[in-house]
From TrEMBL:
Species this chain originates from: Marinomonas colpomeniae
GO molecular function annotation: isomerase activity
PROSITE patterns to which the protein is assigned, alphabetical: FKBP_PPIASE (PS50059)
Protein name: Peptidyl-prolyl cis-trans isomerase
Record bears the keyword Isomerase: yes
Family under the similarity heading: Belongs to the FKBP-type PPIase family.
């Protein structure tokens, strides 16, 4: 029986849910997902939680915000002059911005004022504890 190590390819069903039970993402009703340990598909702490598990095992982990999508950071909330937007805006919509290095940076429009727009660049799940439920389908050595 193969145990999950830092050099495994893992096929699994997973579910992410919030504290109130609301499901954020799940593939239990779909084909299982596969990833190679360390390929960036899963957050590092989610991968670490799987170490030592084997095919057929199921488990549930509660991931603190720090181990999931980070703590909510007020400095990631920016006020941008309304004049910089040449589109119709709605609260809650996601707009893509470019950072100093020209990398794409999504921001959520959280408030629309006459002169400025408040944009939240925090990950939508930052500051939230998540429940990570897994069912390991197969474990093999990564190539």
């Amino acid at each position: 029986m193969s145990l999950i190590t830092a050099s495994s390819r893992v096929t699994l069903h997973f579910e992410l849910s919030l504290e109130d039970g609301q499901i954020v993402d799940s593939n239990f009703e779909k084909p299982p997902a596969s990833f190679t340990f360390g390929d960036g598909s899963l957050l590092p702490d989610f991968e670490t939680a799987l170490l030592g598990m084997s095919a057929g095992q199921k488990d549930t982990f509660v991931m603190s915000p720090e181990n999931a999508f980070g703590a909510y950071n007020e400095s990631n909330v920016q006020r941008i002059p309304r004049s910089q937007f040449d589109m119709d805006l709605e609260e809650g919509m996601v707009v893509s911005f470019a950072d100093m290095s020209k990398n794409e940076l999504p921001g959520v429009i959280s408030e629309i004022g006459e002169k400025e727009v408040v944009v939240d660049f925090n990950h939508p799940l930052s500051g939230r504890s998540l429940t990570f439920k897994v069912s390991i389908i197969s474990v093999e050595a990564a190539e």
